[in-house]
Amino acid sequence: MRNCARAGIILGLAIAAASPAQAGQDGPSLSRDGAYWRGPQRTPGAFLSRSPAATDVTVVCDRWPDGSDLRRFGLDAIRLSGARTDHEKCLAVYRWVRRWMIYFSKDRKYGGAPVEKLISPHRKGGYVDQPLKLLNVYGVHHCDGQTRVVEAVWRALGYRAQKVVRGGHTVVGCHYRDYDDVERWHLLDVS
């Protein structure tokens, strides 16, 4: 009870000290130049150092796959999904790529796959198809780009995978031993 009374007295004194009648003005100055807004000016140090204290730092979360490497992404997807069998592992990679990337239809008004002007125009007109770049830079692509990512991650884990194009649509084929102990291809539509 004594602490509550003491806090009430301190709060009352603080309010009285900050009241406009006591200050002789309309209220505390809230302009950016006033002392209320900021402390004393100090010159910041160099932002770019010739010898930084830390280099090649990667910050990752234990609840999200590390996208800096395709194999690491696959292993994290498997761990986060709790996958044990090859079938569960394949679905884990597939589902995490689906979470990570957005499907972008080329039929939309502003649609189109990511294109880089720095890539040689002779190489598919600058069409971006590098899986790591699709994961970490763009995060959006047609069925073809998303299929490339699942295919590359599945291959990085040591499995067979290939891109399958049928009727203008691309799916990924993953090869692994199924529940009945027979190795076969499994087609997945990533988009």
Give me the count of strands: 5
End-to-end Cα distance, whole Å, is 63 Å
Order of helices and strands: HHHHEHEHEEE
Overall mean pLDDT stands at 78
What's the tally of helices?
A: 6
Q: Quick one: biggest sheet?
A: 3 strands, antiparallel
Radius of gyration: 28 Å
Strands side by side in the biggest sheet: 3-4-5
What's the layout of helices and strands?
Blueprint: H1 2-18, H2 20-23, H3 70-81, H4 86-100, E1 102-103, H5 131-138, E2 140-141, H6 143-156, E3 160-166, E4 169-177, E5 183-188
Parallel strand pairs: 1-2
Antiparallel strand pairs: 3-4, 4-5
Helix pairs in contact: 3-4, 3-6, 4-6, 5-6
Description:
- With 191 residues, this protein is of the alpha+beta class.
- It has a domain at 70-188.
- 37% of the residues lie in helices and 14% in strands.
- It has 6 helices and 5 strands.
- The protein has helices spanning 2-18, 20-23, 70-81, 86-100, 131-138, 143-156; strands at residues 102-103, 140-141, 160-166, 169-177, 183-188.
- The strands form 2 sheets. A 3-stranded antiparallel sheet has the order 3-4-5. Strands 1-2 form a two-stranded parallel ribbon.
- Helix 3 crosses helix 4, helix 4 (86-100) packs across helix 6 (143-156) and helix 5 crosses helix 6.
- The longest helix has 17 residues, at 2-18.
- The protein is globular and about 70 Å long.
- Residues 19-24 have low confidence and may be disordered.
